[in-house]
Amino acid sequence: MLMQQVLVMFLLIGVGFFCVKRNIISEKGSKQLSDLLIYIVVPCLAIDVYQVDMDTGIIKGIILAFGLAIFSHILAIVVAKLLFRKREDPRYRVERFAAVYSNAGFMGLPLVQATMGDEGVIFATAYLATFNLFAFSLGAMELQGEGHRPKVRSILLHPGIWSVIVGVLLFCFQIHLPNPIGPAIKYVASMNTPLGMMACGAFIAGTKLKGMFRNKGMYGVCAVRLLLIPLLLILIYKLAGVMHWFEGAEMVVIINLITASCPTAAMASIMSKQYNQDAAYGGQLVAVTTILSIVTLPLVVMVAQLI
Length: 307
Known about the structure:
The chain is an all-alpha fold. It has helices at residues 2-21, 27-48, 56-83, 91-100, 104-144, 152-156, 159-172, 181-189, 192-205, 216-240, 249-260, 267-274, 279-306. Helix 4 packs parallel to helix 10 (216-240). The longest helix has 41 residues, at 104-144.
């Protein structure tokens, strides 16, 4: 099931790649597509999925989802710092960022939505909000240097964070959006899967792919991002028995593993450019991990389910 959905996702990525290569989508259009997702579609999705009736199982799942998301990011940061040591070549900063932060928004949310429906997306948004919190604080500090101090206000105002806060508040107070607001948000939210995948394809099409497979350091980042971190998480969750903590915990764990096993976030290139690091290298890491994830993503989930 998951393998089939991954293949569907990659076909959609191919559509985005094709559109850019055939100039159906320009470089400016590609950025606008990403902005549409970040500022409109994903926030609508984050609000829409919380428009459900109060349920004890969902509350437990949300709490567990946030706990696992925080833990998985901390584990990834520790692993990246241990394996990608400081060196004269400043690209180690890009490698650390690329190893830690997954494409939870453009790829993780669509994949969870396609395989587990809107209920699964509720728990996936916890990972996305945590990703944004860590990426724009500790991730930015990593790329810019220890002296950087991110602004709390700008982090909290990021669409991937405030929309989850709004969604959770609406859920807690059982506020259901009336017509025509609720249906309109649902229609916009439904665009997340195709647009997210096409945005990934457009990003890859705009990346300089020539010669990138000759960079041996790149394979280390790919191994850590796609295999080592997810497999460590599986081992720890197994030893802790997280899947059996309560009914429905297994679903939350699988969703955490899917989002944590996604390829490198596009932010590895975007933020590297913002902080005067090697943005081209960041883009290549995004492209290569995305291509390789067609094999690694189903493999990680299969291992998790077997164990």
